[in-house]
Amino acid sequence: xxxxxxxYIGRFAPSPSGxxxxxxxxxxxxxxxxxxxxxxxxxxxxxxVDTPRTVAGAAEGILATLARxxxxxxxxxxxxxxxxxxxxxxxxxxxxxxxxxxxACTRRELADQxxxxxxxxxxxxxxxxxxxxxxEGRAWRVRAEGVIRFDDAVQGEQVTDLAADAGDYxxxxxxxxxxxxxxxxxxxxxxxxxxxxxxxxxLDSTARQIHLLGLLGKPAPAYAxxxxxxxxxxxxxxKQTLARAVDEHPPQAALLAALRFLGQNPPDMLARxxxxxxxxxxxxxxxxxAVPHRHQAVASGFF
Length: 303
Ligand code: GLU
Prior knowledge:
This protein has seven helices and twelve strands. By secondary structure, the protein is α/β, with parallel strands linked by helices. The chain has two domains: 9-82 and 227-302, HUPs (Rossmann fold); 92-183, Rossmann fold, CATH 3.40.50. The longest helix has 16 residues, at 22-37. The protein is elongated and about 70 Å long.
């Protein structure tokens, strides 16, 4: 293997809420190949910040699946559940600058607010200028305004008006856990991640993440959001849609299917090739420009 020498740092950041399914394999393959094609580093982080959604043994299962496919990551494996001090420090920075404020609103009180693009409720700013009399802070939110633009390597130019979309968003939840938006930004910044390649289900979170990086005085990475794998009904593969574990397939076949899904064009003669040969072909032929932006249905064996 060539030793990674360029400044590129990519990562794969699975949530241990189940086994690796075809959709997450696509994100792993895309982020890995983009890093290796740039002679970059590829980091691995287990996103277990949302402890109630973490399934016992899922992280170990994901690591075993990645090993079966022949993925090799650089540096130490990072667990979000061990990084609370770093998230705490980031929140303290935001509080000290007056950028974060406590919010007393309950989910029920916000239920009539319009939906943001990611399905959360747009925050009407109730606690922005102080808690209403007699109420106590539950969550912490950051003030979000302005327009965020970025050029996604797969999905093209994205423009989000933060106030019109989700409004002030949560960085520490009412249950005391740090929100995904804060954890991911702090982790990527601390690891020096330069390129985020992940599934397009996170496209709508990206403006908030760029905004939060700005508030923390950190540069934003480049982004590429890969098309989502769906079942025949157009639903994203997930635990809820009972997506199958990729382990049900020989890794060669699943890897070739992921490459085709990503618009790469592996030659037929690789169908019976060993895994190492498929990886070699994939690294030397990787083209992010060939990745389709539209979501695609996958063969029934994968869901
Ligand atoms: N943990 C997230 C997931 O499994 C990915 C987060 C990211 O790549 O930023 O969907």
